[in-house]
Design brief:
The protein is an alpha/beta fold. It has 10 helices and 10 strands.
Length: 257
């Protein structure tokens, strides 16, 4: 029986009387890839942040693996298995690829040893290095482990962000516009890598994207948000072919490949 990794029930959020989310119901099942699309200002980022715990909700429920986590802070949700990437790449200059993953591993372990590394009093253990290199190998970045982050292409930088999220051992990975800044070839390569890693590790994915072609070819189901409300949801191709959706977001003559 397929179970829900994530479920929101009648999730609502407003700012100074302006409704950002209105009774949003959404679910992500085990091993599934779900898309979330809509125009600017539709509420996608607000929904993401409410799921992550960055924002509190006015009403409604966030269930993660059957547990109501709506009152938990973001770091507690991360420890339970909710990982994320950012729309804008957030990498640290002067650090290597492996060091970025090591930071995530130390955070997950809660060892408090990162500060010691920064002042030269501690180094990574063999187990930590092996854990980082395992993820780098899955992402095709093993040969770049010791490269400065500044030497990477944008596509490789996106993969490092994915790798950092994978170090937290997520059960659910939230991807915030991972194709931003990538060309068509880089986007397809990123999608192929994500499919392979997901198949190996078994997590679920919730994807916020403006690239409709990526959503169409990558996700199993999708939700359309408009003015804070879900106006359509279901199997991705079926939803994107609905006349109202095509008129509103794709243009009447848009085609999918």
């Amino acid at each position: 029986m397929t179970t829900n990794v994530l479920e929101t029930r009648e999730l609502s959020k407003s700012y100074s009387g302006i409704t950002a989310l209105s009774k949003v119901d959404l679910e992500v099942r085990e091993h599934e890839r779900v898309g979330l699309i809509g125009p600017n200002g539709a509420g996608k980022t607000t929904l993401f942040n409410c799921i992550l715990g960055v924002l509190g909700v006015d009403s409604g429920t966030v269930l993660f693996e059957g547990e109501d986590v709506a009152s938990l802070p973001a770091h507690e949700r991360a420890r339970r298995g909710i990982g994320r990437t950012f729309q804008r790449i957030e990498l640290f200059s002067g650090s290597t690829v492996r060091e970025h993953l090591l930071i995530a591993e130390r955070t997950r372990e809660g060892t408090g040893r990162l500060w010691k590394d920064l002042i030269g009093l501690g180094g990574p253990t063999r187990a930590e290095i092996e854990a980082c290199d395992e993820v780098l190998a899955m992402l095709g970045l093993r040969e770049l482990a010791d490269e400065p982050i500044e030497q990477l292409s944008l596509g490789q930088g996106r993969l490092v962000e994915v790798g950092r999220a994978l170090m937290t051992r997520p059960r659910l990975l939230l991807l915030d516009e991972p194709s931003s800044g990538l060309d068509r070839t880089e986007t397809r390569e990123l999608a192929a890598t994500l499919r392979g890693v997901q198949a190996e590790q078994g997590f679920s994915i919730l994807l916020v994207e403006h690239d409709v072609e990526l959503v169409a070819n990558f996700t199993d189901r999708c939700y359309i948000l408009d003015f804070g409300s879900v106006i359509a949801h279901g199997p991705t191709r079926q939803v994107l072919d609905e006349p109202a959706v095509r008129r509103a977001y794709l243009g009447t003559g848009a085609g999918l490949t």
